[in-house]
User: Fold this.
Amino acid sequence: MIQLTRTRLRSDLDDGAIGRLADDFASTHLLRLPAFLDDSLRAAVDQRLVSATFQTRVEKGMEIEETIVEPALVGLFTLVLNDPRLFALVDRLTGCGPIGCFTGRVYRRRASRGAGDQYYPWHNDVADDRLIGLSINLGHEPYDGGVLQLRAAASREPIGEVANTGHGDAVLFRISEALEHQVTPVTGIAPRTVMAGWFRSQPSYLELVARETRAVRRSANRAGRQYRASRMSA
Assistant:
């Protein structure tokens, strides 16, 4: 088992088991990790989700998903997933090469109310030095639909699919120009709520934090200048 806690990565896999999982990933480009979040981490996530606010994400006039507005929850995942031990294990399982950081978001999708509603078509996520995708199911209730599918980009031949409906289970999948993926529309009553993101070759986690800190400072400085200008003109 590979399991993430609030303080460390826990794994009881020996070299043979890791090698077999790596072989599976090499052939399907998918790997399911049951009970990836331990009980304590799941409880912490559940507590934050109860009162969380979501906002609708729209692209080209189409409602894609509802993204969480909850810095504390995203921050918690940012801390626990940017673990060098996890990076090393993901590299062994997928052969992706050195990992610099993990970035992601929490979102949910509900059953579609119309054609294409809360659904994102085939794409490859190739951008920002992404290597491996990660999706963690945060919902208690099993959802219908919402199946992660992979296909070959050139031939459009299906490669594999997985319905990741277990609370705290996760899926790793390869990011490549040769591959495309999609999540099929949710069809039942229960929404699909996930932490989704990417292991990236760069920047390093420390550089990522430094960049975000500089961005926050610039934003605060702009707000301060605007406030002072408004006071002077009043």
